[in-house]
Every structure is written in C-alpha cells, then in structure tokens.
Amino acid sequence: MRFKTKFILSAVIIFVTCLAVIKSLDFLKEKYFYRFITNQLTKYSEKKWNADIYIGKIKGNIFTNLTLKDVALKDFKNYPKDFQFKSDSVQLRYRPLGIFFGRFDADLKGCRIIYGKVILPLDINHHNQVTTIVFGKKSMKLEDLTGLLPHEIRMTGLADFDGEIVLKDVTPHLLNINIKSRNCQLSYDSSVKINGSVNLEISGKASSPLIFGDIELKELYITGGFFDVSSFKDQKASAKLGFLKDSIINIDVRGDDIAAKQSSITARLDSRIKIKKDRDTKPYISGKVDIKNGSYQAYDNRFRITGGYILFRDLKKSPLIELEGDTRIRRYKIYARIKGTVDDSHLTLSSKPELSYPEIVSLFIFGKNFKNLTDEEREKLTDTDVNNILINDLFLGKAEARLARSVGLDDINMKFDTSPDKAQKINLPAVEFGKYIANDKLYVTYSTKPKEAKDVYPEQSVGGEVEITDNITLKGQRTWKESLNLPQEDRVDVEFRWNF
C-alpha cells in the first residue's frame, strides 16, 4: 500500500516537473529563443534582401523546424516605397541549430508580391541555397508597373504574365518569363510612342538572358528624327539596359498598314524588321519597312508620298532609304525622290511643266522664280545651281515670267516650233495665259494655237481649275476653232488627291 502511494506521488511530481519544464521552455522560447530567431532573420533579410522583415507569430520545434505566420518583407532599399512581399505561412526545416547559421529549407504558402494596385501570387520553394519562384498566369494593368521601370518608359494597357525565376544565394540565376498583351501602348522619353500587341519570352541565365518573340505594330508616333532609332545612336538608352547589357535579343516587329506619324511625316507602313542584339554589342534594327503612301511637309509644301522603303542593315551600316513623292506649287507639279543612306542621301527634283533643278528648288523653297530671290535667299543655293541656271536660262521661260508679272498675270507660256512649214516660214508661237483668283483657289487659262495650214482655223481654248477641297480639284476646258460654225469640244475632269 505504501509502495503504491509512493509510486503515485512520484508520478505526480514527475508530471508536475515536466509541466514546469515545458512551461519554462515555452517561456524561454517566447521570451528569448523566438526573439533571438526573429533578430537572426532580421539580420538575414537586411543582408540578403536589403529589406525589413515583420513576423506575426512563430511556433514549432526550435531545434529542427519552425512555422512563421503572417510574414512580410517591406522597405526594400532598391525598390519603390510601395513594393513589398507577404506570405501567410513559412515552413522552415533545418538541422539542429542550422537556423542560427542561415542554413535551412523553406516552403512558403500564400505568397504574393504587392506593388500599389498590383498583386502577383507566387509559389516559392527554398532548398540548398536555391530558391524557385513560380508565378501563374496573371493579368494586370501595365500602368501600375510604372514605378518599377526607368522614368523614360511609360506603358499602358493589359498584359498577361507567367513564368519561373530561380535564385541562387538570393541572386537571380535563371529566368523563364512570358509576357503577352493584345493591346498595349509604350512610350519612351516622349519621343517614341507605339500601339500594338506583344508576345515575348525571357529565358536563360539572368546575367545574359535570351529575349525573343514578336511585336505587332498598329500605330507609331515619333517626335524626333525618323531614323534616330535605326542604330540606337544615342547610347544613353543602351547604358540604361542594366541586366540586359549582356543579353541576346531577337524580336520580330511586324505590322501591316501601320499608321506612322512624325512632326513632318504621316504615312502608312508595312513593317518586317527585327530588333537584334548579341552579347557585348548594342541593339540594332534589321529588315525592311515599306512606305505605302502618306504625306511629307517641307518648306510649307506638303508632298504626297507615293512609295518608298527603309532598309535597315547591320549595326555598322547606315539604313538605305528610298522615298518618292509629289506636290503642286501653283501650276507646277513637283516630283521629289530621296535615295541613299541616312548619313548620305541624294535628293532629286523634277517638275511638270519641266523646269531646271535650280528653278524647282527656288520655287519649292521660296515659292518664286530665281530672278526674284533676294541676296540672302540666293545664298541658300549652291554655285552649281547658279551655273545650271545660267546654262538653262534660254529654256526656262524667264521672258514669259517677266511679261506675266508686268500685265498682272500669274503665267504666260509660249511654245515655239522652230521647224519651218512648207512655205519655209516660222510659225507663230502657241500662247497660254493663266491667272489665279479667289485666293488662289481658282486658276483660269486662255490659250491659242496658230493654224497649222493655210486653210485650217487656229485652235483656241479656255479652261479653269477649282480647288473644292484640299483633296478634290475640278477641271474644265472648252476648245473651238476660230469659226463659230465649227463644232466645239468640252472636257471636264475631277482630280482626287489624298493626304494620308
């Protein structure tokens, strides 16, 4: 009986002692060990991530495993202020006392990256100093990512993201990221704006990633020079590529009937180009852009672009260009053709009625004949142009121009046929008079041709051109012989000119 009583008493004492030890251990864990672990994790996060860690609750076996609840990483020093990471729970597994040396494996549940309105769910696993981050397909507004990009870059629209990032010693090591957007807008430093769709993949080592995919352009706006982006001559952009400095890039940029606008150019384009970059080189463009139509403003004259192309070559060669267009200056139709490279291009001008090159340049730039140019205006023409004028002076209709100004007309054209007729006599010239009225919207003409034979009446005609709109011109003409008994001929034309 006594033995039984002693046994029960001993058991009670042992039980109470165990409870006291457990309570003491719990107190020690709460008071010292968990606080010590929190301090260790705080130092670890500051060293590895340059961020502050917040832990809501800790529980578990301090020797082999711990569970952290409501974990948050905030105040990343190299990220925007609102950037943070949160996890509902973190399961830590480690060898005895390994947690004190930063050696542990971890499974994170309910993880998410938060930046402003952006919430990106993640699955994270950490094993042997290697961290794998997987994020499922997520749609987000691109404008919400503005603070994460260089201040020169702005994006709007919706995009889908998914992929995987592998960190080694908490440093990005491998990437596999997919980005898709059916309708997005991108601008760079207020000089380039692009509307279109994007399908990109970033893979390989983070230090030298492979970036490939395609971009379909719908609209393109360029406020600077049209060719400034051809070889990325402004290397400030390249210097800001950061981790892309050693990347390999191969992106198709295509589009049909792209609306392209620049300060002086409006055009419709077909694009078949590539953005390319090799390791240790700068990015460049290769391929061809066909210019279907459009308009080009120069010296207060708007040329209608009838065709052309831009051929981008390798990094060391300037793009080839060819561009054709026409415009109307008063009664003359001026044709322009640019051919060559961006660094060395040649402009060819021609006209209808035909004029010499310097006359066309004078008309094109100053809107008047060369003889009426001031000294300052003439300085803009080269010595070669002046020589051409002297050589062609007899064939440019200067006498007609002077006569037209003296009688208040805009144009007097005389056409001479210097070949003698059967009677060995030189025929009188055909004469055409022209005058702009109603603010140059209406151009009227009268012309007469000499009789071609003794018994043939001379031909006369009156005509007019009315510019109804910038795109539509109505032309009419009546022709008759000198005798009113002869039949008359009427002709009406409508001319359409579209600026795209």
From TrEMBL:
<dbReference type="GO" id="GO:0009306">
    <property type="term" value="P:protein secretion"/>
</dbReference>
<dbReference type="GO" id="GO:0097347">
    <property type="term" value="C:TAM protein secretion complex"/>
</dbReference>
<dbReference type="GO" id="GO:0005886">
    <property type="term" value="C:plasma membrane"/>
</dbReference>
<feature type="domain" description="Translocation and assembly module TamB C-terminal">
    <location>
        <begin position="157"/>
        <end position="500"/>
    </location>
</feature>
<keyword id="KW-1133">Transmembrane helix</keyword>
<dbReference type="InterPro" id="IPR007452">
    <property type="entry name" value="TamB_C"/>
</dbReference>
<protein>
    <recommendedName>
        <fullName>Translocation and assembly module TamB C-terminal domain-containing protein</fullName>
    </recommendedName>
</protein>
<dbReference type="Pfam" id="PF04357">
    <property type="entry name" value="TamB"/>
</dbReference>
<keyword id="KW-0472">Membrane</keyword>
<keyword id="KW-0812">Transmembrane</keyword>
